[in-house]
Structure to design on (258 residues):
């Protein structure tokens, strides 16, 4: 009700700001936003024991952060052509297939695409509000559907969608092969996000690397001579170090325990 909304408004605003900032960052910022929001709200809450047992701030905060991060992740994609996460990397692939090159010139060259995306965010959020509020009881009941029934239904709809793209069964067989490959990678504990990023961005990275080396006459120091380039490389190394530190720390603690 309105009273609960007003009571949770500070948590929503805090989490929206946190999610907006994390969504712009490269890596899994938008994905980490709900978890960061949940941890923040639990830490500043006067009743942290309620979290995990139906605390409203534990729902409204992460959801606000999730929505904010999902939308701000378009900023580096559309302004710099750099996808901050795996979902945006797939978006880059879709744009390239359509002949659209994301970057600083996308607003001038493809204004209909840019403003269409902006409008879709407003319309999409409005439709979510209109649809979800009356049907919230139905969505809750869907959670009771057993997974053994839900999973085959998802696979069936995927096959129908894939077949409708080219009206050929070969695409369905190809999807099945890649599904088995994905299942094997999942069982071997491979992360799907780096694979998607590498698949989409690998060719672009190699192409731009060759162009930079051709322009510099084959001198690799060109990447550190410019303050901007050197700064971006340092930021990338710092982000890599931050991502690897938890794993290294966990292994170190394991060794000490042994």
């Amino acid at each position: 009700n309105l009273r609960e909304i007003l009571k949770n408004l500070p948590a929503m605003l805090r989490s929206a700001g946190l999610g907006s900032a994390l969504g712009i960052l490269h890596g899994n910022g938008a994905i980490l936003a709900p978890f960061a929001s949940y941890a923040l709200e639990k830490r500043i809450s006067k009743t942290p024991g309620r979290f995990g047992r139906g605390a409203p701030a534990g729902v409204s905060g992460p959801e606000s952060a999730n929505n904010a991060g999902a939308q701000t992740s378009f900023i580096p994609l559309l302004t710099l052509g750099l996808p901050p996460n795996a979902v945006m990397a797939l978006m880059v692939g879709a744009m390239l297939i359509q002949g659209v090159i994301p970057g600083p010139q996308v607003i001038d060259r493809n204004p209909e695409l840019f403003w269409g995306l902006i409008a879709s965010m407003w319309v999409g959020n409005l439709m979510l509000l209109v649809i979800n509020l009356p049907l919230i009881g139905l969505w809750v009941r869907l959670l009771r559907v057993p997974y053994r029934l839900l999973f085959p239904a998802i696979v069936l709809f995927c096959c129908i969608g894939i077949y409708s793209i080219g009206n050929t069964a070969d695409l369905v067989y190809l999807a099945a092969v890649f599904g088995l490959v994905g299942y094997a990678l999942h069982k071997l504990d491979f992360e799907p996000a780096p694979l998607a990023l590498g698949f989409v961005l690998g060719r672009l990275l190699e192409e731009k690397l060759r162009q930079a080396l051709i322009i510099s006459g084959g001198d690799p120091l060109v990447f550190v001579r410019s303050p901007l380039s050197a700064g971006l490389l340092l930021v990338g190394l710092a982000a890599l170090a931050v991502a690897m530190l938890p794993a290294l720390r966990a292994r170190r603690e394991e060794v000490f325990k042994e």
